[in-house]
Specification:
Layout: H1 2-8, H2 16-23, H3 27-36, H4 41-57, H5 63-69, H6 75-86, H7 90-102
Helix pairs in contact: 2-3, 5-6
């Protein structure tokens, strides 16, 4: 399920219908699976975005490209979300990562 979300993020957050179709499930079946795991689609998409953001920020992509790949409408929306998730800016996170690689 996470892989299907990652594959669709650059187009924005996938809908329940899109994700169910990609997984070959009825939307209601997917909704029940998510509920059984104590998850919501929005929560899962946010978790996938957070994990993928950390991976992408370790690479060479520009911050605007990272924002696009994660499906945010604008880099500023990504920056706000990243700060909410981590308490730091994407630039600060990337600088800290690169600083720890130098040590």
């Amino acid at each position: 399920m996470r892989l299907q979300i990652v594959r669709r993020l650059h187009r924005g957050a996938p809908t329940l219908l899109e994700l169910a179709d990609a997984l070959g499930l009825a939307p209601r079946t997917l909704q029940r699976k998510l509920q059984a795991e104590g998850e919501t689609l929005a929560g899962l998409v946010e978790a996938v975005r957070r994990e993928r953001a950390a991976e992408l920020l370790a690479g060479p992509q520009a911050l605007s490209e990272v924002s696009y790949l994660l499906g945010f409408s604008a880099p500023s929306a990504f920056f706000r979300a990243f700060r909410r998730w981590t308490g730091e800016t994407p630039e600060g996170y990337r600088a800290r990562l690169r600083g720890s690689e130098m040590s």
